[in-house]
Inverse folding.
């Protein structure tokens, strides 16, 4: 068995070692009471068969004493078994609770690249199913260890005490049982690993389908998705069947071996009685004790086999735990707020080693309060470029400086407090609108301030039409917002945050022209005195920018102000401009014609 993993499990129990050991101890004493009962039984049989005198030569007293001992031991046994189970549950549930909290916190602190790589369904699977296997390990298997060891030794010593030859003859079964258990341990480990992996696949499939249920419906792909799910589910069934087969093979096999042991023991003891080496009372006690000697041996095997699942699941948790968190604090910063002077110098970036560069040779300078527009076809690297600023990803070449300080020297937490982003695909939590607007603002805000921000973002009037106004829950349990409404809610959030650097990633892509105009004027007010990055597909949105960068395949192919860029008649910018004005003209002409 992997000693490091076991040591890790022990460390996880930190703070609960006490309750764990108490639980084990209670179970052990409870078992002790059971064994003691067997000795009372032996005494009883010996008294009845006349090999032992009555206690103080008084039949009534002897029988009363025996009865009382039986009752007391039964109460001790039952009572402590209950206490032990309670403590075991307390330990296991607490460990599980703590691990769950820890994992949740840990997972949300991992890097963007990690989350890009690992499917959400896989993470959910580990935090739920694997964690539960670890919890079961603590509440069921780990608690049994002490009981098994104690029961074994107590009963074995008791038998040795009755007759040492009988004692030795009763444990010859241990080596074969250990061998069988280890074989099963290895196979169950492998089978369970596969089973958990398959279950993760299944939950990823499920999670993805639920997220993408609209797409599935829109393309009428239900049957295809159903088949895909059924295939994964069938795989899980096969793996589960094999796992169960392993478990169910183990029991009969170990029981047959143990059955021979018992039978052999009984026969051997019977021969001893016939030869006069053993009293009837001792024989009776032996029969009672040997059952409780076989029990721990039988359960040792079971424990070994079942521990495999706990260890596999624990290892799957450790895989997450050992991933480094994103470092939010390291770095130096000598100011409360940044001014927003930004310099890119030959910056390049690739998402992972060996892949092609998504950005290369990017150089430009921005003064505080200026606005930079990024324009370029889809996939040209606009979002990637702005995501470097809050250090969602670290640039792989060149240098980025903010206020003259190298970006990768600035602590992420501070940096992110200075940057406001209106994401390309806005996300709202299933909480109230108010909570969504104040999310991560990092300071106390009044209701007036919230409404003010919502007004600027042209979302206030929409919110007031909801039954509960700002207290309306967004999402699954409440109102569903349209794409544009979501975007404006996140704009309100960003306004409230009052950042030094503002990033607007396609922020007006999902609103109509009229709303866009009102948001644009709001954004213009917001952009004042802040360094602003605007990503847009419409030239109209970037005409006033202090600097326009035209991106193509991760490179800046043109840069300058609107008027300068237009002068390059063959440039991409001019081409986009021509196409868009033509479309706009046709559109306006059409509107005039219908008016
Ligand atoms: N998380 C990621 N991991 C690996 N590659 C990525 C990742 N995100 C984007 N890319 C790749 O980087 C390139 C640039 O993507 P990016 O999202 O920056 O484009 P964009 O200019 O914002 O496009 P759009 O206008 O469609 O939003 C694309 O080729 C894309 O496939
Ligand atoms: Mg983008």
């Amino acid at each position: 068995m992997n000693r490091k993993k076991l040591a890790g499990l022990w460390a996880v129990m930190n703070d609960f070692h006490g309750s764990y050991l108490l639980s084990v101890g209670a179970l052990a004493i409870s078992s002790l009471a059971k064994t003691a009962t067997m000795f009372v039984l032996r005494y009883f049989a010996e008294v009845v068969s006349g090999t032992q005198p009555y206690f103080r030569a008084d039949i009534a007293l002897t029988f009363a004493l025996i009865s009382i001992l039986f009752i007391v031991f039964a109460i001790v046994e039952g009572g402590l078994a209950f206490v032990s189970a309670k403590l075991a549950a307390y330990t296991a549930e607490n460990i599980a609770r703590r691990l769950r909290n820890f994992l949740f916190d840990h997972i949300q602190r991992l890097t963007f690249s990690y989350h890009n790589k690992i499917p959400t369904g896989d993470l959910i699977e580990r935090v739920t199913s694997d964690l539960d296997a670890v919890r079961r390990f603590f509440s069921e298997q780990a608690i049994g260890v002490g009981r098994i060891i104690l029961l074994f030794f107590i009963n074995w010593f008791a038998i040795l005490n009755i007759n040492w030859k009988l004692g030795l003859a009763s444990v010859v079964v241990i080596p074969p049982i250990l061998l069988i258990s280890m074989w099963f341990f290895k196979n169950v480990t492998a089978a369970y690993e596969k089973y958990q992996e398959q279950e993760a696949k299944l939950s990823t499939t499920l999670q993805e389908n639920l997220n993408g249920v609209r797409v599935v419906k829109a393309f009428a792909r239900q049957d295809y998705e159903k088949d895909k799910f059924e295939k994964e589910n069938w795989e899980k069934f096969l793996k589960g069947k094999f796992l169960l087969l392993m478990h169910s093979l183990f029991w009969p096999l170990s029981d047959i071996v143990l059955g021979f042991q018992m039978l052999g023991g009984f026969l051997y003891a019977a021969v001893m009685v016939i030869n006069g080496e053993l009293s009837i009372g001792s024989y009776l006690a032996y029969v009672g004790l040997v059952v409780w000697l076989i029990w721990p041996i039988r359960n040792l095997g079971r424990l070994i086999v079942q521990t495999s699942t706990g260890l596999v699941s624990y290892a799957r948790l450790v895989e997450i735990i050992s991933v480094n968190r994103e470092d939010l604090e390291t770095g130096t910063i000598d100011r409360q707020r940044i001014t927003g002077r930004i310099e890119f110098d030959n910056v390049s970036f690739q998402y992972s080693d060996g892949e092609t560069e998504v950005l290369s040779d990017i150089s430009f300078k921005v003064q505080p309060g200026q606005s930079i527009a990024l324009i370029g076809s889809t996939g040209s690297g606009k979002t990637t470029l702005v995501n470097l600023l809050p250090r969602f990803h670290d640039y792989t070449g060149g240098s980025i400086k903010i206020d003259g300080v190298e970006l990768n020297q600035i602590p992420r937490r501070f940096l992110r407090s200075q940057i406001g982003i209106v994401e390309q695909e806005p996300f709202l939590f299933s909480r109230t609108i108010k909570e969504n607007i104040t999310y991560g603002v990092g300071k106390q805000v009044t209701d007036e301030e919230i409404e003010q921000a919502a007004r600027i973002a042209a979302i206030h009037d929409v919110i007031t039409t909801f039954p509960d106004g700002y207290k309306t829950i967004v999402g699954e349990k409440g109102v569903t917002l349209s794409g544009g409404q979501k975007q404006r809610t996140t704009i309100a959030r960003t306004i409230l945050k009052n950042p030094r650097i503002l990033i607007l990633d396609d922020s007006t892509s999902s609103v109509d022209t009229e709303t866009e105009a009102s948001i644009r004027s709001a954004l213009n007010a917001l952009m004042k005195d802040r360094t602003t990055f605007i990503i847009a597909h419409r030239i109209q949105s970037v005409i006033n920018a202090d600097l326009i960068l035209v991106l193509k395949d991760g490179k800046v192919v043109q840069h300058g102000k609107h008027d300068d860029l237009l002068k390059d008649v063959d440039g991409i910018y001019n081409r986009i401009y021509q196409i868009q004005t033509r479309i706009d003209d046709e559109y306006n002409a059409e509107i005039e014609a219908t008016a």
Observations:
- Residues 382-383, 424, 505 surround magnesium ion (ligand 2) (CB under 6 Å).
- Residues 222-274 form the longest helix (53 residues).
